[in-house]
Write a structure and sequence with these properties.
With 467 residues, the protein is of the alpha+beta class. Helix content is 58%, strand content 18%. The protein has a 5-stranded antiparallel β-sheet. Strands 7-9-10-12-11 form a 5-stranded mixed β-sheet, with helices on one face. The longest helix has 71 residues. The two termini are 81 Å apart.
Length: 467
């Protein structure tokens, strides 16, 4: 009813009720007190009092009625808003009683069960969640009156394999416990994550194969260089041996013919001594080269851990890299004065140093014929500072930022694989347990600064085995 007609009606009702009450009081008071109030002795007074009472009462009732109507309207709007949230929400939502009956459900919730909303309200209850373990969670939430959030993975509940994030919200209505169930379907995201994990696994396997191929390629280059370097001492020794054999034959002929003279014998002794010295020097040189190569090859292929002197390991690398350096005018100097004993992985350090040298020869000295490389090392409180520097081209900011990224190279296809520094970074941080920092700028060379613990951490596989 509109506000004005309702107020008029209220005023009229109160007015007539007031007149009736005044009339009754007018009849009763003379009997009680013997006299009647002067104001009530006339009809005009009665009407005035009744009008005043009616007006005040109508005003009060009208104000309260307006407040009640407004509150009722707000409540209806809130109910409609809540219903719109429930029924228009794309998330599946349903309300269950403590006994398990489905009291309300939106279309999204009915859809995941391949049913209609009316059918869900008639036949559905939360006992269907027993197989996936959610029923116990619902009952616990209702009993403890606490919210809960659970992940549901099931293959039979909805007729397909699904992953749901389920939120349970308990509430009371008319002194009865209820629970609001809300599902968030992240099946597609889960499937995508599993595919991504499988792709990452395949990528990691491919990366391991590439890293291993890179290591084998480095060893292959090392073998080729050492084989070339061995040609000189072995060739010299072979030539000296042939010459000595020729002199022995001549001496034997002279002795068989009986014409051997003292001067000839003395000449043979001098020549034999020189040729033996030449053979010995070249054989020793070849043996040292083979020994250095053998140590580097064994260390890099076996990944064994042992105690060693850093300078000795670096010197082995310098010796095995000498054939490569001798082909150019670039020079490598080792500046390690004090003995530095490490309990670590010499093969990993040798591979890092070899990669630094190869990187300098391919990239730093690409535009120059004469370059210098320096390898320095110091130790302080169990931490080894190993630095490799060159005076080559240096790198710009973009190149330096991506220097340790896999498959990044400024000379891809013409000597660069894009894996050299990536492998170095992995070895330093994962195997040796250290850190690596690159300092460079265009035209000012490159500096790799390594911080390595004197005692390397245990490999992850050994840690798991010990646990």
């Amino acid at each position: 009813m509109p506000a004005k007609p309702a107020a008029i009606l209220n005023f009229c009702l109160i007015f007539f009720v007031t007149v009736l009450l005044i009339g009754m009081v007018s009849e009763l008071l003379p009997r009680v007190y013997g006299t009647a109030p002067p104001l009530w002795a006339s009809y005009a007074g009665t009407a005035l009092v009744a009008a005043l009472v009616a007006a005040v009462s109508a005003l009060v009732i009208g104000l309260n009625t307006n407040r009640f109507l407004k509150a009722n309207s707000d409540l209806n709007e809130l109910l409609k808003f809540n219903e719109s949230i429930l029924f228009n929400s794309p998330l599946p939502m349903a309300v269950y009683s403590k006994a398990g009956q489905c009291l309300e459900v939106n279309d999204a919730y009915a859809h995941i069960f391949s049913a209609t909303r009316s059918a869900m309200l008639l036949y559905h209850n939360f006992s269907v969640f027993e197989a996936c373990g959610l029923l116990q969670a619902i009952q616990r939430v209702l009993t403890e009156n606490t919210t809960g959030r659970f992940e549901v993975h099931d293959t039979s509940l909805f007729g397909r394999e699904v992953w749901f994030d389920c939120e349970l919200l308990p509430f009371n209505h008319k002194n009865q416990s209820h629970v609001l169930i809300q599902f968030y379907d992240f099946t597609q995201r889960k499937i995508a994550e599993e595919k991504l994990q499988a792709m990452n696994h395949d990528l990691q396997l491919a990366m391991k194969h590439l890293v291993q191929s890179e290591k084998m390629a480095a060893l292959g280059n090392l073998v080729a260089g050492v084989a070339h370097e061995l040609n000189t001492p072995i060739g010299n020794a072979l030539m000296a041996s042939s010459t000595l054999n020729s002199h022995v034959t001549e001496l034997n002929d002279s002795m068989q013919r009986g014409v051997l003279k003292r001067s000839v014998l003395e000449q043979y002794i001098n020549e034999a001594r020189d040729e033996s010295d030449l053979i010995e020097r070249n054989i020793v040189r070849a043996g040292n080269l083979v020994r250095s190569f053998k140590q580097v090859a064994v260390d890099q292929s076996s990944d064994c851990r042992r105690q060693f002197d850093l300078k000795s390991v670096v010197t082995h690398v310098a010796v095995t890299m000498r054939p490569v350096l001798d082909k150019s005018r670039h020079r490598l100097s080792v500046d390690i004065d004090e003995p530095i004993q490490l309990d670590s992985f010499p093969g990993a350090i040798e591979q890092v140093v070899t990669s630094f040298i190869d990187n300098a020869l391919i990239h730093a000295f690409a535009a120059t014929d004469t370059g210098s490389m320096v390898l320095r090392a110091t130790i302080h409180e169990g931490l080894v500072a190993l630095e490799f520097s060159d005076n080559g081209n240096g790198m710009d900011e973009h190149t330096a930022k991506h220097a340790f990224d896999p498959f990044f190279s400024t000379r891809m296809g013409i000597g660069g694989s894009g894996l050299g520094l990536y492998i170095v970074n992995n070895i330093v941080t994962s195997v040796l347990g250290g850190t690596i920092e690159l300092v460079t700028s265009p035209g000012n060379g490159t500096r790799f600064q390594l911080r390595l613990p004197q005692v390397a951490p245990e490999p992850e596989m050994e840690q798991n085995r010990s646990v």
